Amino acid sequence: MAARKKTLQNSLDDYSKIVNVVSRFAIHHTNVSFSCRKHGAVKADVHTMATSSTLDSIRTVYGVSAARNLVEVKASDDAPSSSVFELNGYVSNANYAAKKTTMVLFINDSLVEWFAMKRAIEIVYAATLPKASKPFIYISIVLPPENIDVNVHPTKREVSLLNQEVIIEKIQLVIEATLRSSNEARTFQDQTAGQSSISRINKSKEDNPSPTPPGSRAPKAPVNKFIRTDSLDPAGRLHAYMQVMPSGQLEKNVTLSAVRSSIRQRRIQKNSIELTSVEELLEEINKTYDPGILEIVKHCTYVGMEDDIFALLQHKTHLYLANVVNLSKESMYQQVLSRFGHFNAIQLSDPAPVKDVIILALKENSESNDDDTFKEKIAEMNTDLLKQKVAMLEEYFGINIDDHGNISRLHVILDQYTPAF
């Protein structure tokens, strides 16, 4: 077709796309032998045997490193009211590191893309893998055909599922539990020089490393490779600095929501609105901030969560135990000041009544059994107050309340993050 021919690029680009598609089919259909060879070439770029297993196919197509660091995942649900599906596959563990996410997804034996699922899994991995590392994911999902909407993209490569939010949430929990168990076998580079110390994040400045003796040569390996792994040295055992907690309580406290809240998102900061009060607060922060802590937070590597409050951060050859709750509160406060009057916004498809939201908040945070009538009166008073401050909320915070008392737009403090409404 002439129209299709115009979209074709050079042969190398088209051949790489062909190899990508064949590779994905090769690891899914293990009962079929696949071979892909470029015209004129002697060696095939993809070659799998029909008798091999899924892991063998992944090892052949994507390499030994990918196959060695995979763990099996399984999930299912047979509740017609929520979701009906069965999932099998392999995901990379905490030892796998790559610069680009590789996701091979088959739904009812059809190769498709599901960006909502990909983003949801990446959120789980962001709390486990070091920054700049992306996972390898192979998932096969089987569900009733009538629950799939294939008319999302002209090429039918993207899909949308019935009750997909429920399915995504359940798959996230399964992968999160799998990664937590695989994290027990996580490996690091051996430490070869100097014993580093562990410290709380609230120490004023990082200790200065001891000067290099005259005549000695500095180590050639980068400092971020010096990570303690000596099991014979008590100072090198992470659990010596952690509060022992029963496994059941740990499973209860370390939830996906807690992990999500600890993920730091980078953003382009904008100038705050020109208000004397805001400028004075920013000036106070700039005068009192600690350069050492700023350096640590800015250039640290996230290692993992100790519990639902403390996280391990690595900076150069030092390991820090950071209070995520306090760190997040202070970070949010400073970000609100620096972006005051210039917030991005989330437009709600269904405006939320202010009164109903306030009543929900009162029921959620109330420790006493107050009368519902009393709560409604409080909600009405606060709704009237917010209606009087509509212009200020819109200008300063990007919160829009319409004439009917409904919230139609909320401000965004963390870019690229959608809160659980």
Task: Describe it.
The strands form 5 sheets. This protein has a 5-stranded mixed β-sheet, sandwiched between helices. The protein has a 4-stranded mixed β-sheet with strand order 10-13-12-11. A 3-stranded antiparallel β-sheet has the order 14-16-15. It has 421 residues and is an alpha+beta fold. It has helices spanning 2-7, 11-28, 54-62, 64-68, 115-126, 164-182, 247-253, 256-261, 276-288, 291-299, 324-338, 354-365, 372-388, 390-397, and strands at 34-36, 46-48, 70-79, 83-92, 102-107, 110-111, 136-142, 148-149, 160-161, 198-200, 301-305, 310-315, 318-323, 344-353, 400-401, 406-412. The protein has 14 helices and 16 strands. α2 (11-28) runs antiparallel to α3 and α12 crosses α13 (372-388).
Distance between the termini: 47 Å
Q: Strand tally, please?
A: 16
Q: Give the rounded overall mean pLDDT.
A: 78
* Percentage of residues in helical conformation: 25-40%
Short summary of the structure?
The chain has 421 residues and is of the alpha+beta class. The chain has 14 helices and 16 strands. Strands 3-4-7-5-6 form a five-stranded mixed beta sheet, sandwiched between helices. The protein has a four-stranded mixed beta sheet with strand order 10-13-12-11. Strands 14-16-15 form a three-stranded antiparallel beta sheet.
Write the layout of secondary structure elements.
Blueprint: H1 2-7, H2 11-28, E1 34-36, E2 46-48, H3 54-62, H4 64-68, E3 70-79, E4 83-92, E5 102-107, E6 110-111, H5 115-126, E7 136-142, E8 148-149, E9 160-161, H6 164-182, E10 198-200, H7 247-253, H8 256-261, H9 276-288, H10 291-299, E11 301-305, E12 310-315, E13 318-323, H11 324-338, E14 344-353, H12 354-365, H13 372-388, H14 390-397, E15 400-401, E16 406-412
